[in-house]
Amino acid sequence: MIQRLALVGPDGAWDAAALFVYYRKPLVGGYWYAPRGPVVRSIDAIVHFITALESKSLPGRALFWRIEPPVPGSQFPVSGLVRSHAYMPASTLLADLSPEEKELLAAMHEKTRYNIRIAEKHGVTVRTGSSAEDLDAFIRLNEETARRDQFRSQPSDYIRATFEFLRARGMADLRFAIRDGKIRAASFEVSYGDTVTYLYGASSNAERNFMAPYALHWDAIRSAKARGFRYYDFHGINPESASSPYYKHAWDGITRFKLGWGGERRDLAGTWELPRMPVLYRLFRLISR
């Protein structure tokens, strides 16, 4: 089940909006979750949106609302909310594409520039794709990456459905780094507004010393800039402080890789829950530990 909620201002314009998805849980009921939502016009709108949620009935035997507004964590009002572990990344890295290419390169870590040259030296090339065969290839490589690095990826059917839905609307691309005719790295990008987001990435177990992911991202950055986008979003790094509840030591390596490209770290509000049935909610939290 899904429901779309909007907060309408005095002028009739939407001040906040979110798409909530219902997740059913055994024994204690479910919850409504808005990934990266609500989107808002101002911080004040978040306060009004939360107030509206407090007065709205929870359909479907739900225990709480879960929200993840994409606003700075330092500005987020937390009164009445309970922090949850992050579902969408609580911190990200945005590369501003407005400078010239030479300036973008200069802002990178020296090792990142070196690895871009290594990939070029070894003949790594990059292409985009959107065919059914390309999508199959990306999914196979993503599954290989998840096995190697021992993380739980989104289900392949979910990735397939997401790409097909967004691609039909001109919002998704696949990008492949290739050497000697074989795919060595790949990415799933989403384009919206002024930003291209690196949503999912994968790499081969073979020939990792040829630095295919560096060729992949440099091509993606140059392509996004050439198409007039303002930002390249690396989508997911650790918060700056290791004491943050959203810090994951397993992300240390990927965070170093992404920070090497330069850009601005943005720490967002994170994931929060608005309980409506306190006793059952505490039971849910206990079971979910």
UniProtKB/TrEMBL annotation:
Keywords: Acyltransferase, Cell shape, Cell wall biogenesis/degradation, Peptidoglycan synthesis, Transferase. It comes from the Bacteria. GO terms for molecular function: aminoacyltransferase activity. PROSITE patterns: FEMABX (PS51191). Pfam families: FemAB (PF02388). GO terms for biological process: cell wall organization; peptidoglycan biosynthetic process; regulation of cell shape. Gene3D superfamilies: 3.40.630.30. Belongs to the FemABX family. This is BioF2-like acetyltransferase domain-containing protein. It comes from Candidatus Uhrbacteria bacterium RIFCSPHIGHO2_12_FULL_60_25.
